[in-house]
Amino acid sequence: MSDDPVTIKPAVDGPYIVQGLKNFSNRNGAIECKATIALCRCGQSANKPYCDGAHSKVGFSSDNKLKPARDALDTYRGKEITVHDNRSLCAHAGYCTDGLPGVFRQYEEPFVDPDGASAQEIIDVVKQCPSGALSYSVGSESGPINIEDASIFIAPNGPYVLKGKMALKDTPKGKGASETTATLCRCGASKNKPFCDGSHWDAGFTDEKN
What we know:
This protein has four helices and 13 strands. The protein is an alpha+beta fold. A five-stranded mixed sheet has the order 4-3-10-11-13, with no helix packed on it. A four-stranded mixed sheet has the order 5-2-1-12, with no helix packed on it. Strands 6-7-8-9 form a four-stranded antiparallel sheet, with helices on one face. A hairpin with a 2-residue loop joins strand 8 (134-138) and strand 9 (141-143). The radius of gyration is 17 Å and the shape is globular.
């Protein structure tokens, strides 16, 4: 693991300025890293994932428009495990609802049934959550576990998936958010910028060059 810090600064009405990144990839594999990278987050660059200045042409705003009341940590206590969830951070990747539909119930309330599967099955699914919206606690143990190597993965037609210890500059995280996992918006439509809130689905965002 490198001792050099990885920093991400969301520029006001502009790109993500990433410094010190060593692990960068997409579905096709590793991408070469430079000391400083400017990553598009308006969704309009003709050179995705890199910024080409399109944000200034389209009038991109980096304002966070999430209503404060929506930044809430819901807690679901079961017999063996407690599941925590902040819906405002959810990127709607579907790992939870597809992996354990009897626990993470997409069209039911309450959303989580912590007794719908074994504690270990729930832990295994929670650890797959790319946004850090989900976490758990079992007695004194909580998770997901820390990830040592900092990395950014470009989800196909979706957000930047951050893993590992990174410094996200000038950006408070949501209640209960993971310290080592997050998803950052790159479609430009999220109401919870810079975090992904799943808006890329409704916006029809694609990786195609504009």
